[in-house]
Design a protein that fits this description.
The complex is a heterotrimer. By secondary structure, chain B is α/β, with parallel strands linked by helices. Chain B has twelve helices and twelve strands. Chain B has a domain of 175 residues: Rossmann fold, CATH 3.40.50. In chain B, strand 1 and strand 2 form a beta hairpin. Chain C contains 13 helices and no strands. The longest helix of chain C is centred in the middle third of the chain and has 37 residues. Classes of the chains: A mainly alpha, B alpha/beta, C mainly alpha. Chain B: It is found in: Cell membrane.
């Protein structure tokens, strides 16, 4: 457990660095006051507000008090929503989680069978199709894929809703859009690790025991391939959230991606900062989780 | 010693690589009698390991058994379906490998891995299998078998791992045990222990052994009969006594000359001047001609056949026509 | 004596390089053997050709508005004309010309941003790997911080602060994408550092910066080329995503992302507006991935 504690402690400087970068950017971005007051505010009113929210203090003082506030979960008030930024972000998280989990489920359902098939039947037609589809899936920008899916299923066939959240039908297209890129990456990963593992001595040993080839592939080989698969998938959280930002915009999915992009467009910096810090925290926690899972899956490494 | 129960007849296993076809096993015939230990000796690339893998039908593409027969208890294994072949593997013919660490799956316990073949071939439940595994672990001299049953391979020493491999191979009481360089990866003292253990066990289980090795020390210790392979072919076959006392093929002589006395082990035991010929492009004559001290005109132009020069002693060499 | 040992060390270092990089002849032989590598190279050469000769190849000015031919479908469809092979948009602009000009932005931003991130990443990786210790620790925490924020999120915040333009876009994408270089180069340096020729160079008192430029830099070049190629692909997708979101390239400059974004509003009537730019992106990225994968197979001995 010592190890996990050490890893947790490493998170602190990382979050500090991120908060510093974000704060610096916002600092450079300049005066939020102009956006917070009506257009016809007098200079006096502006100055008063500046003084009251500490904008006349030097950079490091401002950063210090910023960190102090952030640690307490206070990212300031969103002027667009007129409430605490963190709670605005918090309200949007479940939608993003729903989308992300659906996308991962789709990706796993596609990638595991295709990755394994193409590795066990290397250079067969199924392998060519799977690897070909994977590389095309990786090359397609997911916003375009989303639009093409809308074009086909919503505009042409009229069977699925164009945008929004609510029913299961609403989830299908965004989840496929976000899931495709992940599935492509996963398929490549499973294929290549399975190919490597199938060449290992212990696979030959397993075969020499006369057990079924299903058992050789799904027990002996896949259990080993699972180690890099789960680890790398958890490490892909950052890519997943990046993809979710765009997918949510395409489908008007009310998650933090859509929230963030609206906030960037309206320069609602409290929301932007809260989003960045929350997303970074999620990514870091997932990375930590990846590390722990890796240690659980691989008996060669002890958890201490 | 009884009649021969396994026979290879004119076995050819070729690898079809991008560069060309490699005849890894080129027309090999051999037979093993009940309770006998047959050793195949040769340098790496001589085809000795591929011969043993062919026998198990474990050749993977681009490799392929081109022709020949593997006769086992009157049946030709080459014609066996995958399913029938699986019933032979690990059950009637079992195998142990050179590197016990990489040959054991790192993510499963020792018990799990040994149980597998018992469950597969003997229709035993998990519980019954565990009982048998612990018995086997005791037989191969593993202390505290209950604990080792639940251990992962990496937690064991090299010698212990090889004992586990042996337990795994013998768990279904096979007729033939193929041992591919069983001691090469081990420390010298451990090597001796493992060899002693194997000798005890074959006596107890009455198993025949096909021993693949480059180590003539191991051959002297274990084998009844010896086959020397070079360039995918058998170049000499005889009993172990004759091999050491009256070797006929210049290659065999070279091997013996470059081998220190038994138990005086060195890193690289075989060192004959020159290199193994390119298997993509074997010479038309004798494959050993370029490295042979007694090379003659004929050797370079005509390929020698395997000839029986005395009962039970065959040689592939123009010197012994 | 000193000179002589230097010569020997140099020769050793070069031999190691040669072993890894191979000769031009070997390369071209390997390239022709790989079908996907050849296809990738051809696609990339084609896109470069199109981008360079865009003014000669494009039938129209990409921004020329033509009120008499609005929403003209592609030439092979009913109502299409050979005057506009891929049709026109809501303002009568020729889609083919817009796509041809769009390639300029994609390549310019892709290559320039990757060069910038390459310079940053390689420098940090070299310093971090070579000097190690406290500095290494700090720099790696920086890398962790950047990895915890999805690239697109980072770019969005940057663009929100500095306002969108081609220059900002290049700088932003350059600043957010350097971590993969830093990590890989650092790893490479750590392993090369222990090789005999570097130890020998150190033992005869060759200065650190000379060891870096003479022995380490040449050896990380192959890694550099592989990551760069694949980064160009992901940067092109990123640029088009940001442009799609309205935060990247601004009119009148034409980017595939903005063309796609414009077309999104007319999905129901003019499917071709959003379809063709997406195909252009996908094919370009596909070509670069093919080329990059081939380069990795040839240059990176670890994947063999």
């Amino acid at each position: 457990m010592n190890y996990i504690v050490r890893r947790m402690l490493q998170i602190i400087p990382v979050l500090l660095i991120i908060s510093f970068i974000v704060f610096t950017l916002v600092f450079i971005a300049g005066d939020p006051v102009a956006l917070m007051l009506p257009d016809d505010a007098t200079l006096e009113e502006i100055e008063q507000l500046r003084e009251s929210i500490g904008l006349n203090e030097p950079f490091y003082v401002q950063y210090g008090s910023y960190v102090f506030r952030v640690v307490q979960g206070d990212f300031g008030e969103s002027f667009r929503y007129g409430q605490d930024a963190l709670s605005v972000v918090w309200e949007r998280l479940p939608a993003t989680f729903e989308l992300a989990i659906a996308a991962i489920i789709i990706a796993i359902m596609v990638a595991i069978p295709f990755g394994i098939w193409s590795a066990t039947k290397q250079n067969s037609s199924i392998d060519l199709i799977a690897t070909g589809a994977a590389v095309v899936g990786k090359a397609m920008p997911n916003f375009w894929l989303g639009i093409m899916l809308i074009l086909f299923f919503s505009v042409t066939l009229g069977v699925l809703p164009v945008s929004g959240r609510g029913s299961f039908a609403h989830l299908i297209l965004p989840a496929i859009t976000l899931g495709t890129g992940i599935a492509a990456e996963m398929t490549r990963l499973i294929r290549s690790s399975m190919l490597e593992i199938l060449n290992q001595d212990y696979i030959r040993t397993a075969k020499s025991k006369g057990i079924k080839s299903v058992q050789v592939i799904y027990k002996h080989a896949f259990r080993n391939a699972l180690i890099p698969f789960v680890t790398i998938t958890a490490l892909q959280t950052s890519t997943l959230i990046g993809g979710a930002l765009i997918t949510e915009t395409v489908f008007a999915w009310p998650g933090i991606g859509q929230l963030l992009i609206q906030a960037v467009n309206t320069r609602d910096m409290a929301i932007v900062q809260a989003c960045v810090m929350i997303i970074a925290a999620i990514v870091i926690l997932m990375n930590l989780l990846a590390d722990i899972i890796y240690r659980i899956l691989d008996p060669r490494i002890k958890l201490d | 010693m009884g009649e021969s129960f396994i026979q290879l007849k004119n076995l050819k296993t070729y690898f079809h690589t991008e560069e060309g076809t490699v005849p890894a096993v080129d027309d090999v015939s051999l037979s093993i009698k009940k309770g006998e230990t047959l050793a195949i000796v040769g340098e790496s690339g001589s085809g000795k390991s591929v011969t043993s893998l062919s026998l198990m039908r474990l050749i993977e593409p681009p490799g392929r058994i081109e022709s020949g027969e593997i006769l086992f208890e009157g049946h030709n294994l080459v014609d066996y379906s995958k399913k029938k072949m699986r019933a032979v593997r690990g059950n009637k013919i079992a195998m142990i490998f050179q590197e016990p660490l990489t040959s054991l799956n790192p993510v499963f316990t020792v018990g799990n891995q040994i149980s597998e073949s018992i469950i597969e071939h003997q229709n035993k439940s998990k519980k019954e299998a565990k009982q048998l595994v612990i018995e086997m672990l005791t037989k191969v001299g593993i202390p505290r078998p209950e604990k080792v049953f639940h251990s992962y391979p990496h937690a064991l020493s090299g010698g212990m791992r090889q004992r586990v491999m042996i337990a795994m191979a013998l768990s279904c009481n096979p007729e033939l045990l193929i041992a591919d360089e069983p001691t090469t990866a081990l420390d010298v003292t451990i090597q001796a222990q493992i060899l002693t253990l194997m000798k005890e066990l074959i006596r107890e289980f009455e198993t025949s052994i096909l021993l693949i090795t480059h180590d003539l020390g191991v051959v002297a210790e274990m084998a009844d009969r010896v086959i020397v392979m070079y360039g995918g072919q058998i170049v000499e076959e005889t009993d172990v006594y004759t091999l050491f006392k009256h070797p006929k093929h210049p290659y065999t002589k070279g091997l013996l000359a470059s081998t220190p006395k038994v138990h005086e082990l060195k890193e690289e035991l075989i060192s004959i001047s020159g290199t193994v010929p390119n298997p993509l492009d074997y010479p038309i004559g004798c494959r050993f001609a370029d490295r042979c001290e007694s090379v003659m005109e004929t050797c370079r132009t005509v390929h020698p056949e395997l000839k029986e020069i005395k009962p039970g002693h065959t040689v592939r060499c123009w010197l012994h026509e | 004596m000193g000179e002589q040992s230097k010569t020997i060390i140099d020769a050793d270092s070069q031999a190691y390089m040669r072993k890894r990089n191979g000769t031009f002849k070997r390369w071209s032989k390997l390239l022709l053997r790989s079908k996907t590598g050849t296809v990738g190279l051809l696609i990339v050469l084609f896109i470069v050709f199109v981008a360079v000769f865009a003014p000669l190849l494009a039938p129209y000015n990409p921004n020329a508005i033509n009120p008499s031919s609005l929403h003209v479908p592609p030439s092979w469809m009913e109502g299409g004309s050979t005057a506009h092979l891929l049709g026109t948009d809501n303002l009568g602009r020729d889609i083919l010309s817009r796509i041809i000009y769009g390639s300029q932005v994609s390549l310019l931003v892709g290559i320039a941003a990757v060069l910038l991130s390459g310079i940053i990443g390689v420098s940090i990786g070299l310093i971090s790997g070579f000097y190690g210790g406290f500095l290494d620790n700090i720099l790696m925490r920086f890398v962790d911080s950047f990895l915890a924020i999805p690239t697109i999120l980072f770019s969005l915040v940057f663009l929100a602060v500095f306002g969108p333009s081609i220059m900002t876009l290049i700088v932003v994408l350059g600043l957010t994408n350097w971590t993969s270089y830093a990590r890989l180069v650092r790893g490479e340096v750590l392993s090369i550092k222990e090789r005999d020729f570097v130890r020998a160079a150190r033992s005869i008192g060759v200065k650190n910066n000379k060891i870096i430029t003479r022995h380490l830099m040449p050896n990380v070049i192959s890694t550099f080329i592989v990551i760069s190629t694949l980064s160009v692909a992901s940067t092109i997708i990123l640029e088009s995503s940001l442009s799609f979101l309205g935060l990247g390239i601004q009119p009148p400059t034409v980017s595939w992302g903005t063309v796609l974004s414009d077309g999104r509003d007319y999905l129901a009537t003019s499917w071709w507006l959003a379809t063709f730019p997406g195909i252009a992106i996908t094919i370009t990225v596909l070509g670069i991935i093919f080329l990059g994968d081939w380069l990795r197979d040839v240059l990176d001995p670890r994947t063999k």
